[in-house]
């Protein structure tokens, strides 16, 4: 158990937390949520001992071992991969090194023999003799092939390093597991394995993630950080979001009868309890929801951007986009080849590839940023396309405009300050914030500016290349809703499982050997044996 008592953290006049009192219990997974800058990662650092609170304390059940996902990708560069994973169990690793050092002594004494015997017993109790094989299994499950297990960590690329550090945190089945953005740089198959692992993990898990599907799959509780307070809610992220929205709606309907409110809340809980049977955390979550107190459901104070794309200047005709034999090679590597398809009116297509360079190259071709390709494509004459690229730095670098002047440049019609302020206000830039220089914006703020720009363009076709990068959960949720509600056509690439599953009605995967085009949802696509066979054939022949 973790007990947090009267915890406060202040930086000068700024207070992140004040008088926080929480208990985290065995067998539960807690998703830490909050706006950017609310202190999610900082809270994990307090629990791990990396940061001292201003006041209050954190206590743990004696004897429980904690593991933390390291954020320093260079800390273990000079160690072999397999050894780095075993270092996750610090006590066992220290015993192993001491034991090995004793056996290497030339003047081996009786005292050394006694100490070695003690260490051997401790090592066996910790399952040390299976440590190497257990570490190797973890690495393989996380997509690190055996050929890399004995290489130095510094010889791996960044995506491989992330997986090694994740294996290190999971190694030895710690009693308490702290994970900050564990799905970063993981593919869908590895994320699915991690979801299965955590859903059946009988320990205390605290996780910070912007992946809503991941939070929904693994979390039994949500810890909401808002206005300097932390509150634990039963259920996963979607339950928290929808219940808080329901409570907000009820608060706005002040004249609604009390019994009607209770009935609505009870029906909401009943529906979620029934749906819990579909979850990997089914039993524990259903029990928790069945016992939930109606008073737990409170409206959230969180603000959501207003991302609305439906103000189309001109309705699209039937001719949208035709692609014929499109191909792209970069530095001698074939990214995709012989891509041929027609986009239909109202399609919402998720463009996939195992290589992110391929999807970015695809959008750069369609937007005219890249003219070095083979094949052809043709837009319909009625199409007004708008896009948000993977890297939007070209729109901000070298500019010292305030946000009003920056956005005014992209307004095709009305350029009045109040009109421009309205679009910025939807993106949560209010008051003096609109006078910020665009050169000092954070990644998330730049993305919200790009959404404002896209809304002003009144496009009937939208393209997004990884639009959830740098966004907090509130902005991701607002974007998801905006894309679902958009009545035009969308081409997009995203690693956000929930966004792809709820928006896309068609999937196109680009490969060096061809393409796969399926009219189905994302979950149907990734679980289809027919699709998996096609993928194997295309990547084998590439």
From TrEMBL:
Provide the GO MF annotations for this entry: ATP binding; ATP hydrolysis activity
Q: Which residues form a coiled coil?
A: 248-275
Domain of life, per UniProt, equals Bacteria
The UniProt keywords, alphabetically, are: ATP-binding, Coiled coil, Nucleotide-binding, Repeat
InterPro entries for the chain: AAA+_ATPase, ABC_tran_Xtn, ABC_transporter-like_ATP-bd, ABCF_ATPase, P-loop_NTPase
Enumerate the Pfam families for this protein. ABC_tran (PF00005), ABC_tran_Xtn (PF12848)
* ABC transporter domain ranges (all copies): 2-252, 321-538
What PANTHER family would the database entry show? ABC TRANSPORTER ATP-BINDING SUBUNIT, DRUG RESISTANCE ABC TRANSPORTER,ATP-BINDING PROTEIN
What protein family does this chain belong to? Belongs to the ABC transporter superfamily. ABCF family. YbiT subfamily.
User: This chain belongs to which protein, by name?
Assistant: Probable ATP-binding protein YbiT
Q: Which organism is it from?
A: Mucilaginibacter oryzae
């Amino acid at each position: 158990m973790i007990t947090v008592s009267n915890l406060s953290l202040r930086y000068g006049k700024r207070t992140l937390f004040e008088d926080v009192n929480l208990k985290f219990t065995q067998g539960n997974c807690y998703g830490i949520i909050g706006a950017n800058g609310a202190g999610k990662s900082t809270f994990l650092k307090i629990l791990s001992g990396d940061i001292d609170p201003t006041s209050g304390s954190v206590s743990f059940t004696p004897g429980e071992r904690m593991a933390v996902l390291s954020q320093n990708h260079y800390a273990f560069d000079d160690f072999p991969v397999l050894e780095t994973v075993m270092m996750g169990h610090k006590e066992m690793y220290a015993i192993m090194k001491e034991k090995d050092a004793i056996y290497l002594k030339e003047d081996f004494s009786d005292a050394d023999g006694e100490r070695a015997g003690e260490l051997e017993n401790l090592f066996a109790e910790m399952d040390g003799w299976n440590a190497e094989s257990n570490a190797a299994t973890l690495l393989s499950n996380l997509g690190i092939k055996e050929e890399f297990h004995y290489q130095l960590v510094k010889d791996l690329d960044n995506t491989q390093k992330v997986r090694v550090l994740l294996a290190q945190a999971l190694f030895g089945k710690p009693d308490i597991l702290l994970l900050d953005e564990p799905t970063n740089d993981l593919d869908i198959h590895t994320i699915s394995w991690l979801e299965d692992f955590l859903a059946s993990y009988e320990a205390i898990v605290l996780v910070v993630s912007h992946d809503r599907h991941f939070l929904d799959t693994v979390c039994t509780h949500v810890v909401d950080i808002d206005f300097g307070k932390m509150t634990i809610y039963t259920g996963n992220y979607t339950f928290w979001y929808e219940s808080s929205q329901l409570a907000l709606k009820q608060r706005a309907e002040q004249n609604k009868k009390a019994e009607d409110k209770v009935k609505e809340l009870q029906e909401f809980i009943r529906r979620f309890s029934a749906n819990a049977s579909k979850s990997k955390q089914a039993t524990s979550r259903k029990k928790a929801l069945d016992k939930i107190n109606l008073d737990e459901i409170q409206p959230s104070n969180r603000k959501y951007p207003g991302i609305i794309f439906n103000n189309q200047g001109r309705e699209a005709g039937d001719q949208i986009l035709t692609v014929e034999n499109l191909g792209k090679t970069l530095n001698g590597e074939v990214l995709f080849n012989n891509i041929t398809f027609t986009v239909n009116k109202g399609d919402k297509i998720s463009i996939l590839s195992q290589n992110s360079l391929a999807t970015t190259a695809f959008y750069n071709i369609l937007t005219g940023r890249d003219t070095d390709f083979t094949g052809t494509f043709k837009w319909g004459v009625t199409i007004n396309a708008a896009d948000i690229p993977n890297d939007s730095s070209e729109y901000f670098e070298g500019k010292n405009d305030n946000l009003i002047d920056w956005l005014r440049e992209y307004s095709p019609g009305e350029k009045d300050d109040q009109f421009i302020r309205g679009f910025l206000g939807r993106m949560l830039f209010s008051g003096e914030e609109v006078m910020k220089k665009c050169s000092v914006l954070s990644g998330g703020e730049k993305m919200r500016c790009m959404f404002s720009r896209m809304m002003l363009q009144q496009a009937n076709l939208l393209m997004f290349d990884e639009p959830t990068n740098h966004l907090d959960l509130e902005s991701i949720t607002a974007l998801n809703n905006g894309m679902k509600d958009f009545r035009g056509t969308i081409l997009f690439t995203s690693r956000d499982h929930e966004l792809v599953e709820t928006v896309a009605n068609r999937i196109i995967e680009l490969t060096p050997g061809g393409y796969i085009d399926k009219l189905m949802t994302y979950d149907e696509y990734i679980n289809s044996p027919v699709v998996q066979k096609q993928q194997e054939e295309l990547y084998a022949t590439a």
